Automatic annotation (TrEMBL):
Name listed for the protein in its UniProt record: Penicillin acylase family protein
Organism: Minwuia thermotolerans
UniProt-listed InterPro entries: Ntn_hydrolases_N, Pen/GL7ACA/AHL_acylase, Penicillin_amidase_A-knob, Penicillin_amidase_dom1, Penicillin_amidase_N_B-knob, S45
PANTHER family linked to this entry: ACYL-HOMOSERINE LACTONE ACYLASE QUIP, PEPTIDASE S45 PENICILLIN AMIDASE
Single GO term (MF): hydrolase activity, acting on carbon-nitrogen (but not peptide) bonds, in linear amides
Essential cofactor(s): Ca(2+)
Transmembrane stretches, start-end: 7-26
GO BP term, example: antibiotic biosynthetic process
Residues noted as binding Ca(2+) in the record, renumbered to the chain: 187, 319, 322
Record-stated family: Belongs to the peptidase S45 family.
The organism's taxonomic lineage, starting at the top: Bacteria, Pseudomonadati, Pseudomonadota, Alphaproteobacteria, Minwuiales
Amino acid sequence: MKWIWRILGTLVVFLAIAVIGLFVVGRMTLPQVDGEVALPALEGEIRIVRDRFAVPHIYAGSREDTVFALGFVHAQDRLWQMELQRRIGQGRLSEFAGEKTVQTDIFLRTLGFYRAAEATVPNLDARTRSLLQRYADGVNAFLENDGGLLPPEFLILGIEPEPWKPADSLVWLKMMALDLSENWTSEATRAQVARLLGPERMRQIWPPYPADGAVALPDQAALDALPDLGPMIAAARPFRRHDGLGSNNWVVDGSRSATGKPLLANDPHLGLQTPSVWYFAHWDDGETAAMGATLPGLPFVVLGRNRHLAWGFTNTGPDTQDLVIEQINPDNPNQYRTEAGWADFETRQEVIRVKDAAERTITVRETRNGPVLNEATGRVREFAPEDHVVALRWHVLEANEMTARAGLRAADARTVTELQEIMRDFDGAQQNIVIADVEGNIGFVAAGKVPIRADRSPWQGMLPVRGWEPGGQRLGFVPHRHLPSAVNPESGFVVTANNRIVGDDYPYFLTNEWAPPYRAQRITDLLTARNAHSVESFKTIQADQVSLMVREFLPLMLAFEPASERARAVVADLKIWDGDMSADRIEPTVFSAWYRQFVRQVLIDEGRGAFEELWAPRVLFMRRVLADADGMSIWCDDVATDAHETCADMLSRSLDLALADLEQRFGADRQNWVWGPIHEALSDHNPFTHVPVLRDIFDIRTPVGGDSFTINVAHSTMRRERDPFTTNSAASMRAIYDLDDLNRSLYIHSTGQSGNVLSGHYSGFVDRWQRVDYIPMSMRTEDIEPGAIGVLRLVPAR
């Protein structure tokens, strides 16, 4: 027996050494937050105080040095995130990920994001270029002077970060625009559905505005002539936004607040990830200061406040992308058709290096309208007939985007109108920007480039166009002075939640795909329910989990006779439910599973090859089906049977299927169907969420309530059979700004400040975020220094 004890003792010693070794190595990957670092690139001393929440407060003598320090702290805390973002924008994932990301790299190289970013740099004004370079200098100062180990991802994957360049910042602006834009994939899906089901069915699923008006159908012959866009849709799927992705913001003036000064709230809804897309920071150069949510890789506060005003974004969702069908010259495959004759394709070679495999060389073609997408799928012959190709027209792929200039200047604004004017340079995905200043003014502007199309039909922007026809051209962009805006509206408040923001009299086309009005309506109801709001009442609104979608749909869905005892018991519970999607309730699980199956049953028989793309909430369409608007209940009939099924039949069938599905997933005991654990928010780590052992270490999960239509939003993706109820996008950050005293403002984001899994601040915000709690957003020294985890001085090298 003694030999067993000796072996066990030896194992314990080795285990202790291993644990100590891991602890020591882990500590070496964490950044220095105390003491002094001498850097040759500095003009003056910089002081960085990290408060008790690990938020850096940067104090310097010039704007150049604050930007430098922001690059430094971004690199300290989020280096892997920045490296991954850069490689995504460059289309260089396969260099470390191997064969499985080659198609992704082909797609990104074809669109040419990084080429556009590099070409944009010299077109910026000198001040913007200078600050982008100073930010890059700060990132590189960390890389050159860090004496510790790189974060775990670099060690595990065996890669080294490269020096940062201004184009690395700009490319992430463009990738964020892609994340907030999906018009072209919607166009492709609509065209595919029209080819498979006919234009009438396509119009019913996506009615152009107004939904109840008489609209001429698109020409069937033109639809039949379109190429097969199915492979293109599949190729773009990794870059599709999550179902229902959006945001909330609202602002009230002093007439609606307890202090007599404005209040502003914002919670942008983005895909959840770890680390969070956001990183909180505060900088002060002695004259100007800004504080709020930054994006690692960018040298400015994106959402936040200065000493004079606060601002917040939601996505307008405009239709800015077009698929353009280009006809190839039958006598010369290197040319395509224009209204003036044949023109030559521009071509370029892209070399994709692949880990543990041979490199790939692709030829990218471009027309005057943009890159040809056929090559992006690697399946050219399945894409289109040999005599046609498909190009993407999108201004973000051009070299004249000035969004970085707007972002850097936002901190200088002192009034609502000043910030509205600064946003003239905002060229990216159009955003509804609500603003409030300390003088008591409120306002908003929908800033961004919106194209004016030659095609003025009700279908403009909704289907691919022919590049050689006059109707397929663009005439320019909506002038900034004509973009939707307001200052001090009579109502005393502004609400945007991706809902329609213009009336019938607005002279320009923005989009036909406004979000359903449920969130905007619920916010408006709660704002108008009381006379004087406070920070506390705004907290309550941001935490609200009542689904107006459920309240609208449930009476329609309960209008049938359940077939089984099990279904009757569930229906009895649903009849007394008020649509509260709280995490501790069972009804949200049952309703969500039932609605998911109902959408499936309605669409799967007729959706055919397009079903996977169609399987989404589609509440505007489904409401019309249930209400039998214009005879649309015909969609409930299962064309695969000889019988004629009604919507009541489909609702009964769907409920039985949903209950069986829930029993199979979670057991027969309905007490195990509580919404929160089933609907848990998953902040996944890229790329380790795909590695079984590592995902348990790097991913962050937490139970949440809500649904896609509650103010406290929690989107899931119903088409994901493996985990259709998991929350994959939500309020990525929340902020409340008090213009009576901006230092009483609050904010939170979804993970923690550090991107290093070995840091105590990797998931430090999760519990607060889950319960809709906040941390202070104060610039006051007395609020910052108590409990600070470190003070780091960056000094010029002697």
